[in-house]
Specification:
15 strands; about 30% strand; alpha/beta; 6-stranded mixed sheet; 10 helices
């Protein structure tokens, strides 16, 4: 089950996932006003994912560069334990204050929900277990999620609801599954747009601004002098190709005006980041319109294609009677939740050391296990 935190509610999606048969089926979806409205299952879920909004959680992946005191000596388990601990503190010290400011809370109220080692490099070479190797440069990649202390206490009640419980900043999951690294990943929903930095050395939240499909819908309603319910019907007819060429041009005029506002906010953000060259970015829109493909086919930017990657791997992705207009393309965020996993088996030993060191920093619940 996926529980996604949005602006003023939570969206709960039940999904059937069978890795062996490569089947993904979205079963149902509903809205609840708070986490207290969730009903405990009779049997535990295989996986329960809390994909929280960027105001409710902060997920960061970052490299920590360390220098060994005696690079000619092979790394021992004791030294490795110390390096992991030092790397953890460097990670926390670097991001805790920024995280508190981002979520609008006091630094003392920032709690680490989970953290994992996702990569290790010695002298530029990736290794799974550094014991016995020699190198001066020791680089750890951490991925951690912070939440407010008040929310951590609420989440603890769900620790026995699933065999595998994950807490993550929702918009951080899709960037983690895009194979090629880009400067930015931009995700637009009904109300807001999130911009994430997505580079090899760092992946984290950059900005959020008010723009989404609701703004385009309002443009259509005002442009045609109708209410938004009728505007939705116009949008649907346009998406299905059931309109005249003349009417299509009128509709796309309003879409273009909406995207002018979108890029009018976005381009200055790119410039503010200080890139000397044009940024590379991928875009994900949680809504469909034929003009989107046309706009981005002529652009230096790309559209995300997680759904296509999964289909190429043999996965059958489908909805149910509760999803009559289901499209894998507009549900990539749900697919990203299903496949998101910061911990990798090859780093299990390192993560055992990390959990031992970080145990006293993390809420005492299944969230960290």
């Amino acid at each position: 089950m996926v529980v996604e935190g949005l602006n003023n509610h939570f969206e709960v999606t039940e999904v059937k996932l069978n890795h062996k048969q490569k089947g993904i089926r979205l079963v149902s979806q509903k809205k609840v006003s708070s986490l207290n409205d969730l009903k405990r299952p009779i049997l535990p879920f295989d996986k329960l994912i809390f994909g929280l909004s960027s105001r409710q959680a902060t997920t960061i992946k970052s490299l920590v560069n360390l220098k060994r005191a005696e690079p000619e000596e092979p790394i021992t388990e004791n030294e490795l334990d110390g390096l992991v601990f030092k790397g953890l503190w460097n990670f926390l010290n670097h991001y805790r204050s920024w995280t508190a400011k981002k979520m609008g809370i006091n630094e003392l109220d920032v709690v680490l929900a989970n953290i994992a080692v996702t990569d290790v490099q010695l002298g530029g070479h990736r290794v799974f277990n550094p014991i016995g190797f020699r190198s001066r440069d020791f680089v750890l990649s951490f991925e951690g999620t912070f939440v407010p202390r008040s929310l951590s206490a609420v989440l603890e009640r769900f620790e026995n609801w699933a065999k595998n419980l994950t807490v993550v900043e929702g918009p951080a999951t899709l960037p983690s599954l895009i194979p090629e690294k880009h400067d930015f990943v931009v995700q637009a929903s009904a109300v807001t747009t999130n911009v994430f930095i997505s580079r090899e050395e760092e992946r984290l939240f950059f900005r959020e601004f008010d723009w989404g499909s609701g703004h385009i819908l309002k443009n259509l309603a005002q442009g045609f002098g109708v209410d938004e319910e009728v505007a939705e019907l116009i949008w649907a007819k346009y998406s299905q190709g059931e309109i005249s060429d003349h009417f299509k041009r009128l509709i796309e005029h309003h879409f273009r005006e909406g995207f002018k506002v979108f890029f009018g906010v976005l381009n200055p953000l790119f410039l503010k980041f200080g890139l000397t060259e044009r940024p590379e970015a991928q875009f994900y829109f949680r809504f469909q319109a034929p003009i989107i493909d046309n706009l981005f086919s002529e652009s230096r930017f790309e559209l995300t294609d997680l759904h296509e990657n999964l289909i190429r791997e043999g996965y059958n992705i489908r909805g149910s009677a509760n999803f009559p207009k289901f499209s894998p393309r507009t549900y990539q965020h749900i697919l990203a939740f299903l496949f998101y996993s910061p911990e990798h088996p090859q780093y299990d030993f390192l993560n055992q050391l990390l959990r031992r060191r970080a145990k006293w920093l993390i809420s005492n619940s299944q969230i960290s296990k």
